[in-house]
Amino acid sequence: MKYQNLENKLFVNNRINLIKHLKNNSLAIFNANDEFPRSGDQNFPFKQNCDLFYLSGIDQEKTILLLYPDCPNPLYREVLFLRQTNEHIKIWEGLKYTKSMAEQTSGIKKICWLEDFDHILHSIISYADHIYLNTNENNNTVQPIAYRDIRFIEEMKSRYPLHHYERAAPILRHLRETKSETEVQLIQKACDITRDAFIRVLKFTCPQVTEYEIEAEIIHEFIRQRATGHAYPPIIASGNNANILHYGDNNQICKENELILMDFGAEYANYNADLSRTIPVSGRFTPRQKSVYKSVQHVLKEAKKLLKPGISGNDYNENVSELMTAQLVGLGLITMEEVKNQNPAYPAYKKYFMHGISHHLGLDVHDFAHRYTPFQAGNVLTCEPGIYIPEEGFGIRLENNILLTADGNIDLMADIPIDAEEIEEIMNS
């Protein structure tokens, strides 16, 4: 890991909070993600299961966490299982966790090698009434691959069919959506690195630069500051490419008088930032570009005011739709007649602003959270309005990351340049 060591208090507290939500006499098991193979003899870079990291801080493949707070044998109430290293692994792959390193990282005192897992589990599982197992319960996507958690569930039910199995995911969803002070600091660190990368890009960009050269400047700054890398594949979309919401080719030349829509963020210690900015290739917005830009910025400012504990996602999105509709009418992109006669299932504003305004952010870029509960203090959400105009050859999106507090919110990206005039000033300095 490139990031600096984290205090294990974060992970100790996370386990304590999880255990409070388990039924009496329950055992819970969490697995590391798979290592996914590429062609030949290579694997894709390993990315830890976010729930396992949240509970242990361990950033290594082939790891299992076992929690059994009511275990009659106190040795096995909290056990971390690791891949045992050897001289061959040390030479070919480098340093792996030792038992003492894992204890220091996680705060777990009982560290065992992975080869002992089956024996230890079998010796205590018959005393447990409930078994909590984990899955990726994300309602935005369907997983077609039988990943590690799914295979493990099948193995457990085959070996121990008469136990009462429970879902760990709803508990983790509830816990992870409210960030602790330490988690906020880590997200802020990711935001700060992202800020520095954006300022670097502002000073670098000019006509005839390529999208991939801008991407290279971003990753240079990320790695220089000990980020793991990109939080997600970066979007560097010049000209009409900005009207492709998930554009990722990043291979075009940025031309004079075009805009560049950039959507990128750093990952630091597995926590993520998510920034969108739109800048003029030539260092100056045209009058039309600036008017659309200021409309998007107006929606961002007003939408941020709405992000307070207690507001529901539905009410929030409804209010934002009214804000965006007014701006689109003012820009001449839609008419009041179209608004009056719009299809409620596809309102008029959707022609130019077709995606959601916010999502939760944390260990996942689209973080684990309950879609139907009101926002609450400790949530971190993006706020990302956009206006996309294919017929005019550009699109504009602005996005900041917002921490909800008891009495309002804090913009974690408040110090990242966003005013059109400030962007122009930096680009021309």
Automatic annotation (TrEMBL):
Keywords from the UniProt entry: Aminopeptidase, Hydrolase, Manganese, Metal-binding, Metalloprotease, Protease
Transmembrane segments: none
Domain Aminopeptidase P N-terminal span(s) in chain numbering: 6-142
GO annotation, biological process: proteolysis
Top enzyme category: hydrolase
The keyword Protease is assigned to this record: yes
UniProt keyword Metal-binding, yes or no: yes
SUPFAM superfamilies: Creatinase/aminopeptidase, Creatinase/prolidase N-terminal domain
Enzyme Commission code: 3.4.11.9
Pfam families linked to this entry: AMP_N, Peptidase_M24
Catalytic activity: Release of any N-terminal amino acid, including proline, that is linked to proline, even from a dipeptide or tripeptide
GO molecular function, one term: manganese ion binding
InterPro entries: Aminopep_P_N, Creatin/AminoP/Spt16_N, Creatinase/aminopeptidase-like, Pept_M24, Peptidase_M24B_aminopep-P_CS, X-Pro_dipept-like
Cofactor (UniProt): Mn(2+)
Superkingdom, taxonomy of origin: Bacteria
Family label: Belongs to the peptidase M24B family.
PANTHER family in UniProt: XAA-PRO AMINOPEPTIDASE 3 (PTHR43226)
Protein name in the entry: Xaa-Pro aminopeptidase
Organism of provenance: Pedobacter cryoconitis
